[in-house]
Amino acid sequence: MGSTPSRIRPPAAEPQLISLPAAWRRLFLRPAPTPDAAGVLGFLLELTAPDGQAAAELDVAPVLLTALGNSRYARPLPLDAKRLGQGGLSLPQQRLASSLLGLPQVPRKGRSYARLAGALGDLLLNEMLDSAPCLFGGVAGLHMQRGTGKPLRWHWQLEADGRQRLLPTLHPGQRLLRIGALWVLDAEHANLCPFEGEADAAALLDAPPLPPESSAALATLLPGTRWAGRIPAPQQFAAVARAELSPKPVLTLHALTRHARLAAGAPPPAYARLSFEYGGERLPGRGGEGLVRRVREGRLVEIARKRADELAAMERLEAAGLTPAVDTEGLPWDLADTLPEDAWMFPGAGHTGALEVNTPARWLALRARLEAEGMQFDYAPSFPFEVLDGAPQWYGVATPSADQQQFALEVGLELDGRRINLLPAVAQALAERQISLSPSAHESEDAVWYAPLDARRRIPVRLSALRALLAPLAEYLDRPRAQLLLPRVQAGRLAELRNALPAERPLEAPAELADFTQRLLRTAAAASDAPPAALRAELRSYQREGLRWLNALAEAGLGGVLADDMGLGKTVQLLAHLLTLKAQGKLPAPALLVVPTSLIPNWEQESARFAPDLRLLTLHGAQRSEHFARIAQHDVVLTSYALLPRDVAALRREPFALAVLDEAQQVKNPRTRARRALQELAPPRVLALTGTPLENHLGELWAQLDLTVPGLLGDEHGFRRHYRQPIEKQGDAEAQARLNQRIAPFILRRTKAQVATELPPKTEITRNVRLEGRQRELYEGLRLTLTEELRQVIVQRGIEHSGIIVLDALLKLRQVCCDPRLVKLEAARGVHESAKLELLMEMLPALVDEGRSVLLFSQFTSMLALIARELERLRIPYLLLTGDTRDRATPVRRFQAGEVPLFLLSLKAGGVGLNLTAADTVIHYDPWWNPAAEAQAVDRAHRIGQDKPVFVYRLVAAGTVEERIEALKQRKAALVEAVLDGGGSRERLSFDQDDLDLLLAPCASE
User: Fold this and answer.
1) Which one of 341, 360, 385 terminates a domain?
2) Which is it for the CA torsion 741, 744, 749, 754, positive or negative?
3) What integer pLDDT is reported at residue 913 of this predicted model?
C-alpha cells in the first residue's frame, strides 16, 4: 500500500544535519520500509489513534457469524475450511473468516477484540471494507464505506516554551487512525480512507517536539527532501530575550475531591497550592527548571527564576501557620492520595489537615494577613467559588404589576452600589437541600450560607438573619424560579418583611402594597353594618358584625370564609350582604349560589322569607336547561354541587358577580369535579359559608381558602410543608402564629359559646330536604295508590269513620320520607335512596367536630338502626336507647360524662324521664306533629341545670306530607293530635275533605 519510495538525497549542508536532534536525523535519512508479512484479524476490530488508544470500533461480525451459523458476538468456533466453503461465503469472505479461526482474542468490556497493525493490517482493512460489511457504532450503526485516498497535509503546533510538534491537518469531524499507515475516519459521512503518501509518513508522529534552536536548520533542510511541499517550514525565532522579573506568590485554593459540594452550598474543606507569577507567567512553587522559556508576542523569552524570593514567600506561609503536605503521615489514606506534592495545609484543620471554610471569621482573617504580605489568592476550577469579605446591606423591593393583581418581590444584598436579588438562589438552594428554613440540631449560632453574587463570588450571610427574612415567603420558595411574583392578597406579608429588614434599610414598596393589611382593617372598620331596608329580619349584633365584614371584603374586591357555628345565621348574613350589594348597585351580574342538593329547598324558603326582593332562579331538575337563557335576569342563581360540573359549559357563557359556596366543606378535596368546575368559571369573588372550615386536617382549610382567596397560602405542597406538617406533627407555635396572621382578615369564625349572650335559651331551626330519584318516584306512586284507596273507603264509610285507614296511609308516606327501607311493601324493595339520611350524615360529622353533644330522636326504631349503620361506616361513636334497652342508666351516665357525643333515642323510650343536660343540640329526624310530645323530648336537654344554649333541628321533607302537616300545626290542632304516634290515637279526626286533599296532594314541583 502506498507509492514506491523514492531515493532520498543526502542533505546539502552537514552543519544543518548536525544541528538536528538525532531522532529527526534518523527520520530523514532512513529509506522507506517494506510491508511486513504478518497480521491478525478478529470479529470486532478496534482501530487506534497514533497514541495507541482506542479511537474507533468496527463490527464485522454480523455477516460472518450468520454465514458460520453462530450468534452475535460469540467467540469463534473451530470451523475448518470445508465447513467455511459450505457456509455460502465468497472467496474473499472465506479468506477473512479463516483469519478469525483459532486466533487468540483480547477480552475488553465483555467482548473480544483484535487490533490491526502494521502494513498487513492496512491490506486486511482494505480487503475487509471491500468484501465484508463493517458497521460503525455497533450492529445498529452506520455501514462504513472505504473512501478515496486523501493527500496528507501537515502543520506545526507551537507549544508554550517555543517547541513545535508536527501533526496531520484534519477537518472538523475527522479522526486520525494509525494501522500501519495513517487513516482518517469521517464519522459524519461514515467513511474510512487512507492518507496518500509514503508508507512511513506515520513515523513523523513519533518524532519529538522540535526545539526552537533547531527550527532554522529544519527549514533549510526541508526543500531537498521527499517531504518538500507537504511539510511546512517551522516557525523561526530571533535570539532569546532574557526577562528580569520579580515573582509574585499566588495561593490557589483547591477543594478536596471527596468533600466537593455544589456551587451554591457551603464551601468544602480546602488545601492550597503555591505558584509564582513572573510577568503573567505562572510557574509551580516546587520543582521546575531555573530557566523557563515562553513565547511572548512572537518572541522567545527566557525567564530566570528568583529562588531566594520564592523561598521567602514560603517562609511567610509557614509563619502564618500553613504547612507543606510533603509528609502525609497521620492523614487518612484517601485524603493523602488526593493531595499533590506541592499542597499546603491550613492551620487548625484537625486530623484532616484541610481548612473548613465554613468559619468565615477565621478564614477571612487569615486571608487578610497574607494579602497584606503580598500574597495573591486564586480559586481552582475544583473549588466551588471565591469567598469575599465585606459588609453588604440587605434591601427589599416590591413592585406591583400593571393589572395590580400581583407584585414582584426582591430581597437581596447591595454591595458596591450593585443589587443582587437572592430569592432565586435561595429557592435553588432550598430545592437542593443546601440550606433549610429550620436550624439543624448541631448548627452553631453563627452558621452562614454563602450567598452568590455572580458565577464565582460568594459572600457569607448569617443563616439566622436569612431565615428571618425568608419566613414570610417560605411557601413560595419551594421551587426555583427566576422571579418571585405574589398575588395581591399576599401584600400583608410585606409588613413582616419590613420588620425583618434593618431599620436603616426600609422596604421599598408603594403605599397600596406596604400597608395592605392596615388598609383592609380600616376598610372593615368603616364598612356599613346597617341591615338593608329590604331585609325581612332583625339581625343580632354578631350578625351585623358579619354583615360589615362581608361588605368590607366586597369593597376590597376579595373573597373570604364565613365560618360561624351551625345555627348562628350564616344564611341570613349572606342574604343581607346580597341585598346590600343590590341596593348599592354593586351586583351588576347574578351571584352564583352553590349548595348541597338537600339544601336547595331550605335556601329557596329562606330567601323568600328574609329577602323576597332578591330575584332567585333555581337550576335544578331535568328541565333546568330551559332556564339557562334567563340567568341574567336574576340576582341569585341557585344550583347544587352535583349539577355544577354538568352545567359548567352553559354557566360559563354568563358572567357572575361572585360565587357563594354553602357548606363549603363539600369541596375540601382539591380534586373534586365541582371545585374544578368553579375554577373554570373563575368568578371575580368567591365567598364560602361553612360551620366546619376544617374537619380532619389543615389541608381542608387550605382547600377552602385557596378557592376564596387564591394564592393566600401558596400551593398545596408548600402549605403542607410549611404549615400543616409543622403544626400538626410538631406543634410548631411560630408556624401556627404565622398561619393565624395570614388568614385573620379572610376568615370570620364565631362559636356559639362566644355569642351565647346574644342567643335566646332555645334556637329552633328547620332543615328542608327534597326527595329525588327513585325515592321521589316511590312517594308519588304510593301516594296515588293510597289516595285512590282512601277515596273508596271514605265514600263507603265517610271521613269521620275512616281515621285509622287515613293515619295508616299517612304513616307509609312519612316512612318513605324518612327512608324507603322502612316501608314494608313490595314497591319499596330495592329503593335505598334517602335524601333525609344523606342530609343527616352531612350534619353529624360537622356537629361532632364542633364539640357538640347531640340528641337524635326518631319515632321509628328501625330508622335508628339504619342511622347507626351509617355512623359505624363513618366511625362516629354513638349510644342507643330504645324500648328494648334494659340498662338505661349506663348510656345516660356515659353521655352525661361526655364520653360519647351522640345519643340515638326513640320517642317512647327517651322522650320522657331522662335528664340529659350535657346535650346542647337536639335533632328531630322525623318531626312529631304533637307540639307537647316534641317539647317533652327537647326538655331532656333544655331543662334546669343546662348552662349552654340549646339548638333544635327539625328535618322535613319539602313538598311532602311532612311539610304540609307542619303548616297545619297551629290551625288544625285536632289533626296534629290525631297524627300523634303515627296513628296510635283513636280520637276522631276533626278535619274535612279539603284538609285531606292538601295532605295527599302531589309532591311539590321542582
Assistant:
1) 385
2) positive
3) 52
Residues 6+ apart with CB under 8 A from 267: 255, 261, 357, 358, 383, 384, 385, 387, 450, 458
In the prediction, which pLDDT does 104 show?
Answer: 42
Q: What are phi and psi of 368, to 5 degrees?
A: -60, -40
CA-CA-CA-CA torsion for 843, 845, 850, 856, nearest 10 degrees? 60
Distance CA 585, CA 578 (A): 11
Residue 526 lies in a domain: no
For residue 431, the surrounding DSSP H or E stretch is helix 423-431
682 with 710, same domain?
A: yes
> Cell numbers 495545609 correspond to what residue?
345
Residues 896 and 913 both lie in one domain: yes
CA–CA gap between residue 357 and residue 712 (Å, rounded)? 40
Q: Is 793 exposed, middle or buried (0-12, 13-18, 19+ CB in 10 A)?
A: middle
Q: Are residues 688 and 810 in the same domain?
A: no
Measured distance CA(450)–CA(458) in Å, rounded: 5
Do residues 123 and 258 share a domain? Answer: no
Q: Would the CA dihedral through 913, 931, 975, 793 be positive or negative?
A: negative
For residue 634, which phi and psi values (nearest 5 degrees)? -120, 165
What whole-number distance in Å separates Cα of residue 360 and Cα of residue 358?
6
Residue 326 shares a structural domain with residue 398: no
Of 491, 478, 396, whose CA–CA distance to 437 is shortest? 478
Helix axes 835-849, 803-818, angle to 10 degrees: 60
| 233 within a domain of the structure (yes/no) | no
* Residues 479/427, Cβ–Cβ less than 8 Å: yes
Could you say which of 701, 722, 757 is where a domain stops?
757
Is there a domain that residue 232 lies in?
Answer: no
CA–CA distances in Å: residue 111 to residues 74, 107, 966: 9, 5, 92
61-68 and 91-100 are packed helices; what angle lies between their axes, rounded to 10 degrees? 90
Residue 236 lies inside a defined structural domain of this protein: no
Task: Determine the structural domain holding residue 410 and report its residue range.
Answer: 393-439+446-501
Q: Indicate which CATH number applies to the domain containing 605.
A: 3.40.50.10810
- Looking at the structure, tell me whether residues 563 and 707 fall in a common domain: yes
Alpha-helix runs per DSSP H in 485-533: 493-500, 511-514, 516-526
Domain shared by 638 and 779, yes or no: no
Contacts of 512 (CB under 8 A, 6+ apart): 400, 404, 491, 519
- Of how many residues is the chain composed? 1006
* Res. 976: pLDDT tops 50: no
H/E element, 867: helix 861-874
Could you report the per-residue pLDDT of 127-180, keeping only the tens digit for each?
Answer: 777 766 677 766 566 777 888 777 778 888 888 888 888 888 888 878 888 777
CA distances in angstroms from 475 to 471, 720, 733, 735, 976, listed in the order given: 9, 9, 17, 11, 61
Cell of 292: 523557563
pLDDT in tens, 841-863: 999 998 998 888 999 999 899 99
Amino acid identity, position 914: L
Kindly tell me if the per-residue pLDDT of 339 is higher than 60: yes
* Residue 350 region by backbone torsions, left for phi larger than 0, else alpha for psi between -120 and 50, else beta: left
pLDDT in the model for residue 529: 84
Q: How many domains does the chain have?
A: 5
In this prediction, residue 56 has a pLDDT band, given cuts at 50, 70 and 90, of low
Query: Rounded distance, CA 79 to CA 71, Å?
Result: 14
Q: Which of 941, 920, 928, 771 lies closest to 858, judged by CA? A: 928
From the list 524, 580, 574, the residue with the least C-alpha distance to 553 is 524
Identify the DSSP state of 721: I
Task: Please tell me the distance from the alpha carbon of residue 772 to that of residue 181, in angstroms, as a whole number.
Answer: 93
Report residue 261 as a C-alpha cell.
459540594
Closest C-alpha to 902, from 849, 949, 970: 849
* Pair (814, 887) in one structural domain: yes
pLDDT for 350 equals 43
SS3 14: helix
Taking the C-alpha atoms of residue 769 and residue 603, their distance in angstroms, rounded to an integer, is 10
